[in-house]
Write a structure and sequence with these properties.
Elements lengths: L1 H11 L3 H7 L23 E9 L6 H15 L5 E4 L1 H9 L3 H8 L2 E4 L10 H6 L3 H23 L5 E2 L10 H7 L3 E3 L12 E3 L2 E4 L15 H19 L2 E7 L10 H6 L18 H19 L4 E4 L1 H4 L14 H11 L6 E3 L2 E3 L1 H16 L27 E3 L1 H18 L5 E4 L2 E4 H14 L11 E3 L30 H10 L4 E2 L6
Parallel strand pairs: 1-2, 1-8, 1-9, 2-3, 4-5, 5-7
Antiparallel strand pairs: 6-7, 6-16, 10-11, 12-15, 13-14
């Protein structure tokens, strides 16, 4: 490390005077015209989540950019969320940049992986592993950087987002244990571009209203302002919502991302051979700051806008279903609303994932056989299957009721002990997908609604698929277009895990003010 910074200092000696001047944090650069705003409605808040992937630990000038961002936002009365790479936090300490560390402490601290771009990134190592193996490996690798961020900033990070597009579903059980939300931009999973939950974790990902002002173009601020105003109008018509705004401190001072210069297409150079990215001219940097600062001030002018951090946003999207004592009639209503293929359900008492609704249905079905009617608390820590299910049924399968009762007992025990949806349910010597088992339970409830015992006779289990998995993107090249991936990189195993974890997906509803 010492050798690296010695070489780095020599390399930069002729450039820092110019960079320091262009990064001066003293003066605001723009004041856009005051927009026309309507009288705010307290029932329609627009939450703006302003976050920064703080990752470049090669170029010291990026430290100054983070400092300027932190100070500007504080002067505006805004708290942002800075997602720190573990190595970046370590390097800030080693460089003696206590000024940057203290300035960032005013804001919310998130997490952005241990090393960011040094191969293998999360999607690369997770694609080669099973689900439980991947959970353990993510915890091992990314727990190091999280610990470093905690040691440097004195708080546990509030959120996590993957480096580049290196997403993986095995991260969610770990984030749930770490009490973190998922905050990033990508294409891998989405419920209509709205906040959702996956694996019990609030998932702010592929949000419809992810907006920014371009930093490179002369009209970037004006175009960004227009985009925000349009999003704000749309959200007001919907009763409020969230706008996600993302930048990188290093964007304000370089022409190309640091990792693209060094790790393009899977390259793994020795640290002593890392190269510095080209930096912006003073004029280019001034334009970037003008566009950003004017964009932030434009958003701030609307009285219904509330800037929130990742640590604060969870309270705006509470999981109300966890506090409900679920009765049989409510379960029956949810099953009816679900339809024949398992998916999430919106109820008056909050949203239910297919995994949660199956768990409730299994418990209540066993009790109905015993003529025992009670209430049930929701279990929100369930995972989807670890392995592939049997082939989808081609036609309905009938099973005698005694085999159904045996299967219910087995599934109940699996859910209780393993915390996972089983990939298959055994009806005697025949294994069927959990999707068909769930569909058969739903059919039985439809035929005998309410607090009555089930009718005697055979049960029928129809062909069914996990409809919730439609929210998972197919394994296509556009998911993996990050510059550091090896050429042609795909992650079919990882995305198959993601589709199985769609059992845990459900919308996240905005709280009423």
């Amino acid at each position: 490390m010492a050798r690296f910074f010695c070489v780095l200092g020599f390399f930069l000696a002729g450039n820092f005077a110019q960079l320091s001047a262009q990064e001066s944090p003293q003066k605001p650069t723009s004041k856009p015209a005051n927009p026309t705003v309507e009288t705010p409605s307290p029932a329609k808040p627009i939450y703006v989540l302003l976050w920064f992937d703080t990752e470049d630990y090669i170029l010291p000038a990026s430290d100054d950019a983070a400092l300027r961002l932190a100070n500007f936002l504080k002067a505006e009365g805004i708290r942002g969320t800075f997602k720190l790479v573990g190595e970046k936090a370590k390097v800030l300490k080693e460089r003696g940049r206590n000024d940057v560390i203290e300035a960032l402490k005013y804001h919310d601290i998130g997490y952005h992986s241990t090393n960011h771009s040094i191969p293998p990134s999360p999607a690369m190592y997770l694609n080669a592993l099973g689900f439980e193996e991947g959970v353990r490996e993510f915890r091992r690798r990314e727990g190091k950087g999280r610990q470093t961020v905690h040691e440097v900033f004195g708080v546990w990070p509030s959120c996590y987002g993957q480096p580049g597009s290196s997403w993986g579903p095995q991260s969610y059980p770990v984030l749930r244990d770490w009490d973190m939300i998922y905050l990033d931009a990508g294409r891998h999973v989405s419920i209509a571009g709205k906040p959702c939950r996956m694996g019990g974790v609030l998932n702010l990902y592929q949000l419809e209203n992810t907006i920014r002002a371009d930093l490179k173009t002369q009209n970037g601020m004006e175009e960004g302002n227009a985009k925000f105003t349009a999003a704000r109008d749309k959200l007001l018509a919907e009763g409020g919502g969230i706008v996600s705004v993302v930048y990188h401190p290093c964007e304000f001072i370089h022409k190309e991302f640091w990792d693209g210069v060094n790790f393009r297409k899977g390259a793994s150079p020795d640290r002593k051979d890392w190269k510095l990215p080209a930096t912006k001219t003073p004029e280019e940097a001034a334009l970037a700051w003008r566009n950003f600062e004017g964009f932030v001030r434009h958003m701030k002018r609307f009285p219904e806008v509330r800037f929130v951090t990742a640590r604060e946003i969870s309270a705006k999207y509470p999981d109300n279903s966890k506090s409900v004592a679920w009765e049989s009639r409510q379960i029956a209503s949810a099953l009816s609303a679900m339809g024949k293929d398992p998916t999430w359900v919106q109820t008056r008492n909050g949203a239910l994932s297919p995994a949660e609704l199956l768990d409730l249905t299994v418990k209540a079905s066993r009790d109905r056989f015993a003529n025992n009617f009670r209430t049930y608390q929701l279990r929100t820590d369930l995972a989807g299957p670890s392995t592939a299910s049997p082939a989808l049924l081609e036609k309905p399968l009938k099973a005698p009721i005694y085999l159904v009762r045996q299967a219910l007992a087995e599934v109940s025990e699996q859910l209780e002990q393993n915390g996972q949806i089983p990939p298959a349910v055994w009806l005697g010597s025949t294994a069927i997908p959990s999707e068909s088992f769930f569909a058969g339970l739903r059919n039985a409830w439809e035929k005998a609604p309410g607090n009555v015992p089930f009718a005697e006779g055979d049960w029928e289990f129809p062909p069914a698929r996990l409809k919730a998995a439609d929210a998972i993107e197919p394994d296509e090249g556009r998911l993996w277009n990050w510059v550091i991936f090896p050429e042609g990189f795909r992650a079919p195993n990882l995305m198959a895990h993601a589709r199985r974890q769609a059992w845990t997906l459900k919308p996240a509803d905005l709280a009423k003010p």
